[in-house]
Design goal:
EC 6.3.5.5, ATP binding, alpha/beta, 19 strands, seven-stranded mixed β-barrel, globular, binds glutamine, 11 helices, single chain, amino-acid biosynthesis
Length: about 375
């Protein structure tokens, strides 16, 4: 925007860094873990991705909002980010199909944002100092008061958030007569992951995060999918137990992001909190099975520990990040289970990795009697 009618807003980081800007979206106060997304487009999909629950996102792209918002450009039923930080957040939009401006959309979804911030300096700071909590406010100006509010925010390390964003009731998608039946453990799934399976002919049943194995098995699935989601995977004891139970079934199983981390934890492999994580649309990943590079969509702040992977005899690393050599994919040698840290549904992002959904469906078909 920036116009003179905008209220001033302030951003305070846990380490005392302060940035002043203007209010955008809802007037108010919000706290969460600061992180940054380097994607140049796809802001609405980012804002509605449940894996961002509990986080305040800096958008590296200098202009956000230019193409407005639209009901169908979503990854869940509401905006999941806790807040947003931008350089220029635009109210005017120029896409014919758009129905609302970004500002109206964020107000409707109660999201407090700040714009006019030097996001290049801020991202450099977070890249150097690492992930930390922050507060945005367009109502509190006193720094001591802001610090007090910020101190109430829990640390992302050790936080279980998946059960908060998971579906409360099971639901189905796709053709009920399909021979391919996939049980989805929903820890905050992105809608397009489900679409990628349904488009390939699967009948999908999505279950709440805390569903026991007996209920999953009652659906008689011939594939299991472990979804993405927010929070610390190591804080999800209940889910690690269910994933262990799922793996005992020896049925084709695929995990994405949080699902990948849970498959690792179920194999007694550790996860760790990354310095500042990976979030964007152009992370290069090498597929070690084919030797090919994929440009991938990513959104994660935790990773699978390479040292404990080395010790796990039944695990093979299938994908590696070409920027920092972090683990991007694994498969189990003794059963048809595999997972990736990145987002092959790629909404938004390049479609290089969608072949993984074909691989999953083919694996299910191979294992059908
Ligand atoms: N996209 C995801 O599933 C994120 C997983 C996990 N919450 C992380 O930040 O690493």
């Amino acid at each position: 925007m920036s116009n003179t009618l905008q209220k001033p807003a302030v951003l305070l980081l846990e380490d005392g860094t302060i940035h002043y800007g203007k209010a955008f979206g809802k007037i108010g106060t919000t706290t969460g873990e600061i992180c940054f997304n380097t994607g140049m487009t796809g802001y609405q999909e980012v804002f509605t991705d449940p894996s961002y629950y509990g986080q305040i996102v800096i958008m590296n792209s200098v202009h956000v909002g230019n193409y407005g918002t639209k009901d169908t450009d979503v990854e869940s039923d509401s905006v999941k980010i806790r807040g947003m930080i931008g350089r220029n957040l635009e109210e005017q939009y120029s896409r014919k199909q758009a129905t609302e401006s970004l500002d109206q959309y964020l107000i409707k979804n109660n999201i407090v944002c700040i714009e006019g911030v030097d996001t290049r300096a801020l991202v450099t700071h977070v890249r150097t100092k690492g992930a930390m909590n922050c507060i945005i406010s367009s109502e509190i100006t006193d720094v001591e008061e802001l610090k007090k509010e910020l101190a109430k925010t829990p640390n992302m390390d050790g936080l279980e958030l998946a059960s908060v964003v998971s579906t409360t009731k099971p639901y189905t998608l796709g053709d009920p007569n399909s021979p391919v039946k996939i049980a989805v453990l929903d820890f905050g799934t992105k809608q397009h992951i489900l679409t990628c399976m349904v488009e390939r002919g699967a009948y999908v049943k999505v279950f709440p995060a805390k569903t026991p194995i007996s209920e999953l098995k009652a659906f008689a699935p011939n594939g299991y999918f472990i979804s993405n989601g927010p929070g610390d995977p190591a804080a999800m004891d209940y889910a690690i137990i269910t994933v262990k139970d799922v793996l005992k079934e020896k049925v084709p199983t695929f995990g994405i992001c949080l699902g990948h981390q849970l498959i690792a934890l179920a194999n007694d492999i550790d996860t760790y909190k990354m310095h500042h994580g990976h979030r964007g649309l152009n992370h290069p990943v090498k597929n070690l099975l084919t030797g090919k590079c994929e440009v991938t969509t990513q959104n994660h702040g935790f990773g699978v520990d390479p040292e404990s992977v080395k010790k796990a005899k039944n695990i093979e690393v299938t994908h590696v990040n070409l920027n920092d050599e972090s683990i991007e994919g694994i498969r189990m040698k003794d059963q048809p289970a595999f997972s990736v840290q990145y987002h092959p549904e790629s909404t938004p992002g390049p479609h290089d990795s969608r072949y993984l959904f074909d691989d999953f469906i083919n694996l299910i078909k191979e294992h059908m009697n």
